[in-house]
Design a protein that fits this description.
With about 650 residues, this protein is an alpha/beta fold. The protein folds into three domains: about 80 residues; about 290 residues, Rossmann fold (3-Layer(aba) Sandwich), CATH 3.40.50; about 110 residues, no CATH class. It is rod-shaped and about 185 Å long. The two termini are about 30 Å apart. Keywords: Coiled coil, Membrane, Transmembrane, Transmembrane helix.
Length: about 650
């Protein structure tokens, strides 16, 4: 039995497709065989009239012969004359009788031929009726088979990232839609035993359902909420001098536009020289103290008293670029470096012991400043990029990284992260709320990437997305996608709770804590479905569906992309058979539906084709797939919701999408 949770599968959502169409009404039975419509063969009236003169003549000849014979016997006529009369009557009777007999034989032959033809017609009608009855029985059996397949089919098939694709770009979407996408993609990976890292720059807590799901299965997640948890986060600890300088130089440029490489090289050169002076104990607070010396900001004696610098280091830094280090370039860059890096002064000041966990979430507090969050986001992303670069290559998507709000980072920061993930096999999901120019030029074009377009509020972004997908293409939107979207909760009020704020600090005298072991990968799909149903609210967004689902047709054009349901995603990627475009629902609650399948629609169609090819060989229909292919359905039921209204530009009853 095929399992839904598989180590090599990364699911982005669910695809609605009716593989078995509605067979319509049953076939009409053949007309019943009624009574004989024609009378049995009989003599025709003309035949009786045509032979009457001959029969009269023959009768008259017989009567004359009797009369002559009577006269002869009575002695009225002589016998010689009587014999002549009898002979004449016999000749006349013979001629007339022979003609009557020939006509009678002809009539009898015709009647016999007509009776034989009538018998053959009855037999032919009987054979035709039997053949029609047999054909109707076969058609009825086929209709019943197709009707049973239609009634029992699963309408929702999982959509997985194709083999060879190591990045997914998600564009547009609401916070609720992002929450659905992160939960759908991340939950299956956690259940398969993979590691997940979520960098949430959206300030909308889009991974809160994923956190609940991880905690429900016993995999306690680690959550940092910045800047409050900066003392317990040091992503650059253990990096070499060059890597640390590279991270910090990119952090400084976080608040700028796409500056030139020359500016970054200046910053990198200054930082490398300072880190070389500070030695192996170069921390960000000590680096900012050294930058204040170069920028001639504040009183250096305060940093000396705090122990951030020694007298020797102060002297070496002051003369690092010459005794009179007043060059405008050095001072200006040192000033800019210190102004940005001072936001990171608290990093790593309270190192803590952390339990093992497969899910790490680093988020930005929406109450912090916009520039502060951008600097912190750049720091975490670039530091993690170096961590990924230094990690040994592993299996594809064994470590999955979500970067939510990636449009807030510079293009070169994204390029470095993309290259590092591609080189080490780390799965990367980049989520953009909008499509600025630096995102547009990288959208699905760097590396092996698939792209998913969710609701796009900006008309220009919708136009760019429609051009990328292809104007005029028609896709299916299921009724349940619209229905769940009408009652969908939103997540602006959600927030993260730090799990490292009260962790035990390193260096205390207490005994080493005994951590619980990480949970094993899910043994079956039941626990996974139960977790989606109980630990998240997505199961309650799925209404009861006692009847077959309907679908409406959506035309790919900018206005329609601006009105997509919150969890709808137009998923597109290039493959060996051409570019594929399909409508996907990222709602994780669909897994709780009784019509949810374990395998993708292409796998199901291949299995059906193999079964159909096996039928002629074995002489009997192959058995239906076992009911175990259905996902378990331990989900709570919510109240029914009204049917979605028909949207403008939509029509119901279109065929499933096909690859281009």
């Amino acid at each position: 039995m095929t399992r839904f949770i598989q180590p090599d599968r990364v699911y982005v959502g669910w695809r609605y497709a009716q593989v078995h169409p509605d067979p319509g009404p049953p076939p009409e039975p053949p007309e019943p065989a009624g009574p004989e419509g024609l009378a049995p063969p009989a003599r025709r009236p003309g035949e009786e009239l045509a032979g009457r003169p001959l029969r009269v003549t023959a009768a008259g000849a017989g009567a004359g012969a009797l009369l002559v014979l009577g006269c002869a016997v009575a002695g009225v006529l002589p016998w010689s004359f009587a014999l002549v009369g009898l002979l004449a009557c016999a000749i006349v009777a013979g001629i007339a009788g022979s003609a009557v007999w020939r006509d009678e034989r002809g009539v009898r032959a015709r009647l016999a031929a007509e009776r034989a033809q009538a018998a053959r017609d009855r037999a032919e009608r009987a054979r035709a009726h039997a053949a029609a009855a047999a054909a109707h029985a076969a058609a009825l059996r086929e209709w019943e088979r197709r009707r049973a397949a239609y009634e029992s089919q699963r309408e929702w098939y999982p959509v997985a990232v194709p083999p060879g694709v190591d990045r997914v770009d998600v564009v547009g979407g609401t916070l609720a839609g992002w929450s659905a996408a992160v939960t759908t993609m991340g939950a299956a990976r956690l259940a398969a035993g993979a590691r997940l890292t979520v960098i949430d720059l959206s300030e909308g807590a889009v991974a809160h359902d994923l956190l609940r799901l991880a905690a429900d299965r016993g995999d306690d997640p680690l959550v940092w909420v910045l800047p409050a948890d900066l003392p317990r986060l040091d992503a650059t600890r253990g990096l070499g001098p060059e890597a640390l300088a590279d991270v910090l130089s990119l952090v400084v440029s976080a608040g700028e536009e796409q500056s030139s490489t020359r500016d970054l090289s200046f910053d990198n050169s200054i930082l490398e020289r300072i880190i070389e002076v500070l030695g192996p104990e170069a921390t960000i607070p000590r680096i900012t103290a050294a930058l204040r010396v170069l920028a001639q900001v504040g009183d250096p004696r305060a940093d000396l008293r705090r122990g951030l610098l020694t007298e020797e280091q102060h002297e070496r830094i002051a003369t690092l670029f010459g005794r009179n280090a007043t060059d405008r370039i050095v001072v200006r860059h040192a000033w800019a470096l210190e102004a940005q890096l001072r936001k990171l002064d608290k990093i790593g000041t309270e190192p803590v012991r952390l339990p093992p966990s497969r899910l790490h979430v680093v988020s930005m507090d929406r109450r912090a400043g916009v520039l502060t969050n951008r600097v912190l986001g750049t720091y975490v992303t670039t530091a993690l990029t170096h961590r990924v670069r230094e990690s040994p290559p592993g299996g594809r998507w064994d470590h999955t990284l979500f970067l939510c709000g990636a449009e807030k980072l510079r293009g070169d920061v994204l390029d470095r992260l993309i290259d590092a993930c591609e080189a080490t096999g780390t799965g990367l999901v980049l989520m953009y709320r909008s499509i600025p120019p630096h995102v547009r030029e990288r959208l699905g074009r760097r590396g092996h990437a698939a792209v998913g377009f969710m609701r796009l509020g900006n008309p220009e972004d919708a136009r760019v997305a429609a051009e990328h997908i292809g104007d005029g293409r028609r896709l299916l939107v299921a009724e349940i996608t619209d229905t769940a979207g009408q009652t969908l909760f939103d997540v602006p009020g959600e927030s993260y709770a730090s799990t490292v704020a009260y962790a035990r600090r390193r260096g205390d005298d207490l005994t080493e804590p005994a951590w619980s072991p990480l949970p094993a990968p899910a043994a079956d799909d039941t626990a996974f479905v139960r977790g989606i149903s109980s630990a998240t609210a997505w199961g309650r967004t799925i209404p009861e569906t006692p009847s077959r689902q309907r679908a409406r047709e959506l035309l790919i054009e900018p206005p329609q992309l601006q009105e997509l349901p919150p969890t709808a995603m137009v998923f597109t990627h290039a493959g060996a058979a051409g570019r594929r475009i399909m409508m996907v629902d990222a709602n994780p609650g669909i897994v709780t539906l009784p019509t949810a399948h374990r395998v993708e629609v292409e796998e199901y169609l291949r299995e059906q084709e193999r079964r159909e090819q096996a039928e002629p060989e074995c002489g009997e229909p192959a058995p239906e797939p076992p009911s175990g292919d259905r996902l378990p359905v331990p989900r709570p039921r919510g109240a029914r919701h009204a049917r979605p209204t028909r949207r403008a530009g939509g029509r119901r009853g279109a065929a499933p999408e096909e690859p281009e």
